[in-house]
Task: structure prediction
Amino acid sequence: DQVRRSRSHVPEEVEFATKPAIARSMIERALSAKVPFSWVAADSVYGVGDIEIALRRAGKGYVLGVGSKHAFNSWEKACAVSRTAGSIAENLPPAAWQRLSAGTGTKGERVHDWAYLDLADLDAREFNAVLSGVWTRGLLIRRNLADGDLAFFTTWSPGGTTMETLVRECPELCVSVPAHAVWDTQASKRSPNIMANWLRAANHSRTFRPSFSKLRMAR
Result:
């Protein structure tokens, strides 16, 4: 849209990028700059695939949104799973759900019903020879108390990580990304308690960034 580019003073050399490409670029820049973070959380518009592989190789945990038709498979677990996220949720017994808070929001505690399935335990060395220890791939499901609406997340975490950690600690320590800014990695390192300091205007970037939803990083 040349009119919008002109009004926003976006240089001609700045190119369009999809949200998955933006997410990969952000993560790669953070890793390259050695910004301290342990988790990445994002909604489903950012996709998975390449982002998952990059984070596994870097030894970082994640909680990434996926759609109800995303397939999940377990292996070497007592309860075998090979279905879509939506189908798995439909067949969960009542006892599988726990009411937990994801932290305090503008309207108070963000309480939902949650379910978590531990799908597979993998050796970190399968993704990076310098890493060690067992990491777990899982499926986290959130159910809205008001209307029963479901949200699904693929997770990757150190072995033994509890559902409470995935639900509360990671989202609570995250910082949202505004639509018009680029990450200043040097500022992030100077302020390690805030994983994202988005200070520079988009026209200083090589890639044009469409409007963000939520992609977050946490210690």
